[in-house]
Amino acid sequence: MLIRQKKPWEIAGLQATPEAAFLNRRALMQGALLAGGSGLLGALAAGPAFADTPDPTASLYPAKRNPAYTLGRALTPESVNANYNNFYEYGTSKRIAAAAQQLKTRPWSVTVDGLVDKPKTWAIDDLIRAFPLEERLYRHRCVEAWAMTIPWTGIPLKAFVEKMRPHAGVKYIRFETFNDPQMAPGQEVPFDPWPYVEGLTMAEAMNDLPLLVTGAYGKPLLKQFGAPLRLAVPWKYGFKSIKSITKITFTNERPKTFWEALDSSEYGFWANVNPAVPHPRWSQATERVLGTMERVPTVIFNGYGTEVAGLYTNIKGQQLYR
Ligand code: MTE
Fold first, then answer.
1. Structural domain boundaries of the chain?
2. How many CB atoms are closer than 10 A to CB 2?
3. Is the pLDDT confidence value at 39 over 50?
4. 13-303 in CATH: which number?
5. Separation of alpha carbons 181 and 200, rounded Å
6. How many CB atoms neighbour CB 5 within 10 A?
7. pTM given for the model
8. The three-state (H, E, C) secondary structure of the chain, written as one string
9. Is 214 in the pocket of ligand 1 (CB under 6 A)?
10. Nearest atom within ligand 1 for CA of residue 87
């Protein structure tokens, strides 16, 4: 299994036909649920493809929904989302859900270090209980040109950063996933730049949108979604939304991210969604909505331009859209 030979963005095109058939069948089965309404989350929660192990924070769900975040399209059924994932620690196909059940999410700790007043290692359940959780409906746009809409639950990254009190003027926040080839066979590939790393500027991190995600579909995160803690950065391509975070570092050095380290000619640090800037090997003008399989136009900043366009007005000479 060589990720270099089977980049996510390459296999997407090759698998398009069988995946479309698979997801269309799923969509038919879920058709009634797509109608939406308040009973939707309960109905979906009843039948996930992979039930997670008991979670000590389960009683915190469902969290109150923040009504400020609306989708403009139907939610992706949980059973579609739970069977179509990118989690390269568990393989290069989209069908990693079964393999991802090897992920052991307790005990789990998250270390916060670097340029911060009070470095701290959190036990995950203490971290989750230290902040009010809220549910937000977000669009999720992969660089491979597929899209989902997801009811995430989590902690606004801004609230977390404020509590950790990074030093004044610090430039970046860096996130790191676990590195344990015994728990994640995909990490046995020796020349890939494990662990998975991502990063944001502090200005991006302090925007209202980034969410430290602890749950989805009204319950704790399934393993294939990146339990027990992942990021959601909805105006950027999905690879920025790092899964299964174990370390958060405040730093003045721009993080070298996993995909940038693997192939900087195709994947960069910024990765803002822009339909007018094609990937070197395919167009980003449209996206396939998983669940309905509609192809719809992609929108700049994935539709979140009002909230984030201002972050980039003074940044010149950088490739902001890949
Ligand atoms: N985080 C880790 N640790 N490993 C990964 O392989 N894949 C990224 C991102 N976060 C990935 C990751 C990519 S390419 C995408 S599109 C999203 O997770 C997919 O999230 P989903 O499976 O919940 O849709």
1. 13-303
2. 10
3. no
4. 3.90.420.10
5. 26
6. 9
7. 0.87
8. CCCCCCCHHHHHHHCHHHHHHHHHHHHHHCCCHHHCCCCHHHHHHCCCCCCCCCCCCHHHCCCCECCCCCCCCCCCCHHHHCCCCCCHHHCCCCCCCCHHHHCCCCCCEEEEEECECCCEEEEHHHHHHCCCCEEEEEEEECCCCEEEEEEEEEEEHHHHHHHHCECCCCCEEEEEECCCCCCCHHHHCCCCCCCCEEEEEHHHHCCCCCEEEEEECCEECCHHHCCCCEEECCCECHHHCCCCEEEEEEECCCCCCHHHHHCCCCCCCCCECCCCCCECCECCCEEEECCCCCEEECCHHHHCHHHHHHHHCCCCCCCCCC
9. no
10. 6
Q: Give the position of tokens 């698979």.
A: 22
Two tokens, residue 141 = 């746009």
Predicted confidence (pLDDT) per residue in 187-233, tens digit: 998 789 999 999 999 999 999 999 999 999 999 999 999 999 999 99
Task: Determine phi and psi for 109, rounding to 5 degrees.
Answer: -130, 155
- For the Cβ of 187 lying below 6 angstroms from any atom of ligand 1, the answer is no
Tokens found for residue 182: 């015994």
Tell me which residue has its CA closest to atom 21 in ligand 1: 85
